[in-house]
User: What shape does this take?
Amino acid sequence: FFKKMIHLRKIGIRILENASRVIFLSSAYQNEVIEKMIPERLREKIRNQSVVIPNGIDNFWFENIGSPKTIEGKKEIRLLYVGEISKNKNVQATIRAMEQLDNIESALSYTLTAVGKIKDRNLYAHLIASSHFSYIEPQKKEKLIRIYRDHDIFVMPSIHETFGLVYAEAMSQGLPVVYTRGQGFDGQFDDGDVGYAVDCFNEEEIGNSIRKVINKYTGISSHCIFNIERFSWECISKNYANLYNGVIKEKC
Assistant: This one.
C-alpha cells in the first residue's frame, strides 16, 4: 500500500484510521510507518491505537534453552551468522569490521561462521577468501542448536530485515546479538540489554559494538536468557487474546 502501490495509499491510511488497534512487529516499523507514511493530522491517533507484538520462535528453543555464557579467558571470539548468503544480509560488513578489530587489538582474534543457503555465488567466493570466514550448509534445528552454543556473539547487520527470528534463536542459547538500527529487531530491547543496534553500512560501528558486547559479555548473555520468554508463542497468543478481549469490551 505505502511503498509500491501508491494509488492504494489512501485506502491503507483509511484502514489504519478506522482500526480499533494496529499491530506492529517492532517499534522500529511502527515509527517508520507513522512518521513517514501517515499524514501528520492522524499520527497521534494511530500511534495511540498501536501495539507492538513480536513474532515468536519454535517451542524447540524453549524446550532446549541454553545457559548464560562466559568468554573469560578466551583468545578467539567466535561470531555467528545464520541465514542466506546474499548482499542484503551484509555478511561482508561483518568481515570488514573484524579486519578492523584485528588491526587495533592484539589480545583477541575473531572468526565468523555463516550457516545458510548460498544465494549469491560471487559474494560467497569473496567471503570464503577471507581467513576470518568459514561456511556451513543449512542445518536442521537439532544440529543448529549445537552451532549456536559453540559460538559467542550473533552478528547480522542486514540492510533490510522484516523481523529476524534468528536473533531470538541466538538469544535462547545465551548469545548476545548485534542487529541493524531501524530494522525489524531494533526496539525490542534497550540498547546494551541483549546486544547493540548498528548502522549496517558502518563497519567501525559494527566493530565497536562487538567490543562493547565483549566488555559486558556475562551480563548481556544472562539478559538474553532472561528476556527470551517474550518470543514464546504462548506469551504472544496471550497478548493477542488480551488485545481482542479489550477491544470487544470497548465495543460493548
Notes: The beta strands are 22-24, 50-52, 76-82, 109-115, 133-136, 153-156, 177-180, 195-198.
